[in-house]
Design brief:
Blueprint lengths: L1 H16 L3 H11 L8 E2 L6 E2 L3 H4 L9 E4 L3 E7 L2 E6 L2 E4 L5 E8 L3 E11 L5 E12 L2 H6 L4 H18 L3 H6 L1 H16 L4 E13 L1 H95 L3 H23 L12 H17 L1
Antiparallel strand pairs: 1-2, 3-6, 4-5, 4-7, 8-9, 9-10
Length: about 350
């Protein structure tokens, strides 16, 4: 580090003499490395581990004969410049000057942040999209020799795949189909990452930001859509209320008509019962009247057979009924039939006598 400081100081002095202040600033920036990128010691004192693997790839270790690999790591050992063995976590012995600890690979899952980058959708809308890609080394040999910097490569490939996938979709599809977009990007990156010993666990889009004009138009569209939904819901509510009201009116009319039908049916049943009872009463009255008439005729017949002047009594009875018949005819009709001698009682008696004699002959 002291030698590097002297070299940077010399370069900065040279740049100042030649009127190149940018050289000095670059040298100062190289020395002022952020704390997050400063080396740190792991559980083993034999390996210097950087927090950012993309900037510190490859991680190397110092051969101290007795070496220790931290948990979750694998160490690629080269012998005379050629792959010799890959050690898992734990300790192992290595020959000094012959064996070199070329790669220390973290086999745990990690997240690589994709910074916001601009892309153009299929409907020519510029958006800024950011995301995270979750990767894990599954093959230490391919991770060491498949790419000069596999983490940087997979990150660049994820950015390119994200741009390509966004270019094939419209803005509305991107906003409403993130899962499909994530799956497309993951599948594309996974195909290339196999050669680098990486497994792409998932890809997640964390932000989609359209430009200001499109964002303003989207806000107006969202407000219009909310207003439309409010109107639709209000109209559906009014429709439902009208339907329920008409349904209630229908049920009321049905109930009323059913009640009217039951009323008419009950009245018809009562009228039928009334007619039946009246007919039965009339029949009973007729029967009793006929029996009484028969009884009267029988009594008259007995009286005619035994009493004196029977013929005269019978003729008197027939004449009486004859007169009653004329009276009934006068009540029920305007047309009347009279005898040529209605006041002649003897004529009536003669007619009655003739009737009786005809009945006797029969």
């Amino acid at each position: 580090r002291a030698g590097a400081m002297r070299a940077v100081t010399a370069v900065s002095r040279l740049g100042t003499r030649r009127g190149l202040p940018r050289v000095k600033s670059l040298a100062a920036a190289a020395l002022a490395r952020p704390p997050a990128l400063q080396p740190r010691r792991a559980a083993s004192s034999y390996f210097m581990l950087d927090d950012d693997d993309m900037l510190s790839w490859p991680r190397r270790g110092t051969n101290t004969i007795l070496n220790v690999v931290p948990q979750g790591y694998k160490c690629v050992v080269e012998r005379l410049g050629k792959l010799h063995i890959i050690h898992d976590s734990g300790w192992f012995l290595a020959i000094p000057l012959v064996d070199s600890l070329s790669f220390l690979i973290d086999m745990r899952e990690r997240a690589l942040e994709i910074m916001p980058l601009k892309a153009i959708t299929r409907d020519n809308v510029t958006v800024e999209v950011s995301g995270n890609v979750y990767v894990q080394f599954v093959d230490a040999e391919r991770g060491a020799y498949g790419s000069q910097n596999p983490l940087y490569a997979v990150k660049q490939h994820a950015q390119a795949s994200m741009r390509a996938a966004i270019g094939e979709m419209e803005l509305d599809e991107i906003l409403h189909a993130r899962a499909r977009l994530n799956a497309v990007i993951k599948a594309t990156v996974q195909e290339a990452a196999v050669a680098w010993g990486l497994d792409i666990k998932r890809y997640e889009i964390t932000g989609i930001t359209p430009d200001d004009k499109v964002a303003e138009a989207m806000d107006k569209q969202a407000a219009a859509e909310r207003e439309r939904r409010e109107k639709v819901l209000r109209a559906e509510g009014d429709k439902t209320a009208q339907e329920l009201k008409s349904e209630g009116t229908k049920i009321a009319l049905v109930n009323e008509s059913e009640g009217e039908l039951i009323k008419v049916r009950n009245e018809a049943t009562a009228r039928r019962e009334q007619l039946i009872l009246e007919a039965q009463g009339f029949a009973e009255a007729t029967r009793l009247r006929a029996e009484a008439q028969a009884k009267a005729v029988q009594i008259v017949s007995e009286a005619l057979d035994s009493a004196e002047e029977a013929d005269k009594a019978a003729m008197l009875q027939v004449a009486k009924e004859y007169i009653d018949m004329y009276g009934e005819m006068a009540k029920s009709s305007n047309t009347m039939i009279f005898s040529d001698r209605p006041a002649d009682v003897r004529a009536l008696m003669a007619q009655a006598s003739a009737v009786l004699k005809a009945g006797a002959k029969e």
